[in-house]
Amino acid sequence: MTTVLFVTSEVHPLVKTGGLADVSGSLPPALRALGHDVRLVLPAYPQVLARCERSLTLIKLIDLPGVATPVRVLEGVLPDTGVPLYLIDCPTYFDRLGGIYGDGTGDWPDNPQRFALFSRAVVALSQGWPGLGWKPEVVHCNDWQTGLIPALLSLEEHHPKTVFTLHNLSYQGVFPWGTFVELGLPMALWSMDGLEFYGRMSFIKGGLAYADLLTTVSPTYAREIRTPVFGYGLEGLIEARADRLVGILNGANYAHWDPISDPHLSCRYSSTDLSGKATNKTALQRRFGLPVRPKVALLGFIGRMVEQKGIDLVLAALPDLLQHPVQVVVLGAGEQVFEEGLKSLVASFPTQVAVQIGYDEDLAHLIEAGADAFLMPSRFEPCGLNQLYSLRYGTLPVVRRTGGLADTVVDATPENLASGRATGFVFGAATPVGLTGALMRALHLYYNDYSTWQRMMAVAMAADYGWDKSARSYADIYQRALDKRVDI
Ligand code: ADP
């Protein structure tokens, strides 16, 4: 049994911007189910306080540099899981309207101060204190917001082991040198092998350079980030620490994402009775104001509208594709240029394309259930969760061969179809032509060989990407860190 402090800047169901929240809400309970004492810590954002208020108790006040009043540490429980939860409550930095990383116009300018304060509080918490009666053996940090923690802990004489998980290397937390000075960080951390990144300070390097072990969220992404295309200038450091890096696939939380039990659906269904899927398709077409056409292929897209997700490829590929009988529903928010592009596509093809701009968890479930195929043409995808949900909902994913998409979707090649392994459509080139090729293969199969499509649905729905296996891999990583068997 290992004691682990799991450090995150977001967790489902309290506060979520993306996949990190899903992982933070699922991995700690899965580890606790294996017998490990895992506890969560995150900033006390107002939406978190509102959800947890009644269960919270004040356990400590700590003085930290950068704020005039002591920071409160509150203790509660992550809803529906029993996972103990510590909240770092500093209203100056966390009690504000808008998103957790910024408002609609950009990132909060004081993000380095906010997450440096959070990190310092976690360092204090992870070293235990009188009265808490608990001290982690391992501190598990996630993404740049927590990168300073392994760096700061490395300076302490007796400190817990540290594991740092990369969920997306393209967000690094890089700020001017002056920020490093202003934060009052020890000069011992300022070097090419430390937080310095071409004359600036990098939060993520704190994790990459100082953590005892590194993980990322798929085996393919673990290889990709060692190359210049995916490494964003950090490939050298990652290559140098490759013996400490392992790729562990995220799981899907089937308690929330399974058509057999999903409360968000119009009608539940399973691989043995797919009639409910057709009901959801009708509901989805109605919800988006599209003509109800049971036999027309319906494609779904959910995600942040940024280049990473290949939304520009979708925009470029759709005008030609829409000459064929096909409908497309899109849910997401992001860069204005893509939102506008989609709106003008809707204006040109009102009976075939519909878009909802915004974040809507309920609708995300209905899209997974009601669509026939799921579009995920990401340029890079550390793991990706939506393709895992799509597989479980029998909504065949159309994906680019990268990161976790390459590791979880089996292309419908003649060989894979013959051996009964195919679960989706995979393409290589990140171009509109590449995407169109995969989509045309999908449509061809849908309209000309629906029984094979249905067999693929059954294989996809039976695939098991639950958290249990991944949680065991993380438990193994913790043990290696403790055993000092850091070679992987
Ligand atoms: P990333 O973390 O890069 O955004 P992932 O595929 O790993 O991508 O996880 C995204 C998660 O966020 C999924 O659970 C997805 O359903 C959800 N999501 C993304 N955009 C929206 C949206 N507009 N409405 C509802 N859920 C969304």
Structural overview:
The protein has helices spanning about 20-35, 45-50, 90-95, 110-125, 150-155, 175-180, 205-210, 220-225, 230, 235-240, 275-285, 310-320, 335-350, 360-370, 385-390, 405-410, 415-420, 430-450, 450-460, 465-485; strands at about 5, 35-45, 55-60, 70-80, 85-90, 100-105, 105, 140, 160-165, 175, 195, 200, 215, 245, 295-300, 325-330, 355, 375, 395-400, 425. It is α/β, with parallel strands linked by helices and about 500 residues long. Helix content is about 40%, strand content about 20%. The chain starts with a strand and ends in a 5-residue tail after the last helix. The chain folds into 2 domains: about 5-250 and about 470-480, Glycogen Phosphorylase B (Rossmann fold), CATH 3.40.50; about 275-465, Glycogen Phosphorylase B (Rossmann fold, 3-Layer(aba) Sandwich). It is built from 20 helices and 20 strands. It is globular. The structure holds adenosine-5'-diphosphate (ADP). Adenosine-5'-diphosphate (ADP) binds near residues 18, 303, 333, 364 and 386.
Detail the poorly predicted runs.
Answer: none
Strand sequence of the main sheet, in spatial order?
3-4-5-2-1-8-9-13-14
Largest sheet geometry: 9 strands, mixed
- What is the structural class? alpha/beta
Helix content: 25-40%
**CATH superfamily label of the largest domain:** Glycogen Phosphorylase B
In one word, what is the shape?
globular
How many strand segments? 20
Taken as a percent bin, the fraction of beta residues is 15-25%
Total domain count: 2
The first-to-last residue Cα distance is: 21 Å
